[in-house]
Amino acid sequence: MHQLFGLVLGQRDLSRAGDLFSLEDSEIEDCLSQALEEIKAISCSPDYLTNDNDQAVVEICITRITTAIRETRSIERHGGALVGLWESCLEHNLTPQGKDEDTPHAKIASDITSCILQNYSRPPVMALAVPVAVRFLQRGNRELSRNMSSYLSLAAMAKAELLAEHTEAITCSVLGGNHMLLRVLPSVYPKQPHAIHHHLGNLTAMMSQFESPEQQHLLRLIQMVAEQQPQVLSPLVPSLVGYLGDASLNETLLGALVYVSQASPASMAPFLPALRVVGQQYPVLLGHVVKIHRAVGLTSECQARSSLVYLVSLLGSMDHSFHHTLLLEIRALTDRYTSILGGCAKDIYRMSNSFTSIARLLGRRLETDTTINCRDRERERERERERERERENTEQRLQVKIQAFEEKMGEEGGEGLPTPQRRNSMGQAAREKHRDMRFNRSKSLALQAVRSRSINSDSGQDGEVVELTSEAFLSESTPNQQTEALDTSPTERELNNENSLGGGIGEGKEDKLYSHLRDNMEKIKEFCSEMVQQIPIPEHCVIEDSSHGSVAKLSFSCPLKGHYCLYTKSCFTLTSRQPHLWINVMLLHLQSKHSAPLSSLDDCVQKLGRLWERTQLKEAHGFSMAMTQQPTPHRKDLDSLQIHLEEVRFFDLFGFSEEEGSWLCFMCNNPEKATVVNEEGQPLIEGKLKEKQVRWKFIKRWKTRYFTLAGNQLHFRKGKSVCIPFTLRL
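Structure for Ventricular zone expressed PH domain-containing 1, as requested:
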């Protein structure tokens, strides 16, 4: 050791410590490791914490040594001794004693940290330093931990494998509040994925606590997990979807959810409605939303139909540049489940670039299939419910009749026995025994009938309901068996008749429709208050037969009937293949306008019931039964009505007026625009039309004609002058 270093450290001579800086670096280079060992011994002495002189000597010596190491670039030569002194600080208290007041050993560690970790690009030095640096993260010194995190991030970029074995400690430090280390996790993830998977849920839950740069590091980590092991993110889908409302996060998160939907589509199925809202708010993300719908739709035909309804609605409304991608996703679903479109799939996809036409055809096909499938499923569920109710009612009626029969047999046993001698006679005893045998046999036959009926119902056999009465019990007997003829009094016959009809009477007195509407009054009013702003209520409905089955011919008019109203003397009409759904909507709208529940006896309800009967297919539900299946229609059913109204251009001619609370025509909604298209009370519109002069498609020859629509005449200019009588009908 150099003589001056020996004097200063040996005698703790603070007055000579400053002379160390007058020495050349080359003079002391060989003794730096020895000097570090001496400093380590001084700092570990029992009185070091209270000896200000020793602390000052150590601080000056460390500064001189670290300066010499940097200037001579001898970190690899003296790194072991420097890291040894650094590590010895971990054996002492590093927690600040007061505000911004470090302990003596924390000061030593802080002075050495930068000298060591600035060499993050030198693997031999980092191999010694990283295990010690990680231990400093959990020692409660925020400033020291922050500096350590900064250097470790640089080390991870240069040599990630050095930090990989410490992934667990680094992740715990992040969860403890050291958010700066988030940037390390994407670097070590490929080496230690399982250690991060274990804490990924807690990290994701802290997303809102992170600053924007830290969020980007976590997003990068989530993206890496999604690309390599997307199934790990399946339990985190609810929390990830919850962050999609943040514009700075949603693009990366939605991209990760695309991978999740391919690995675990079932985990994404409940969140498709939320994703549609995101797609509506951020159209740039629709590509990801569409891919997730396709992945979920491929799991089953039911999911495919649900996804197709949404995808087809986009096809008719999105920008042309998006159509090709969207059509590929639609075709992937229809190719997997060919029964959805049947044999017409190729014809639909062979059409020209008229994506609106394709959307319209696909929508109609889906609407028809969905209606049929829903009707079949509802019919099957209703049959099962009816069989269950039938079994319960039969068992209840049987118990009542058995009880009545037992009481009657008890009364018969008490009659005709005026004296004790008669009661004890052998003949009477024989008759009582015979009566008991007959009752037990009748009871057994009745129970056997119930069991047989339950078996038939469970096997799906629908049969006529057979009413079992007490007379039937009495008439049952086995061959070659002597029976006693019992005469039934008129009173008993009346009682038996009432018992045989009791089940039917109780059912007839209850109005299921009334009970259903009464129990769901508030829900129906709330539903209708929103529904009428999206779906107009027709003024007239006529059920007609067509080659495709029953259809509803609906008429809509403008209730305001303003001066320029488009429908003062006419109506807007359309034909729908969903008459059942329209009838349901009209019933709910009627109920929302009444303060008391409607019943099956009301004239308006009976009219709707007659309309329903016109549409009823074989084995379909009756009106009351169908209307009580659910309080309100499903959202997808209302969406199909909206799609059809868009196809027939209803929303181009009508708009909902919040002021009037009803659907008004364009002119009544916008009276200020009436003067633009009217001149002296007559319609006036100018424009141009293109006329193809040659019928062959490959010859592109067109003639432009300019026209003016004035009053009831259409005038052409340029070319041949022509005046055509014209009636404006919108």
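The CA atoms of residues 121 and 158 lie 6 Å apart.
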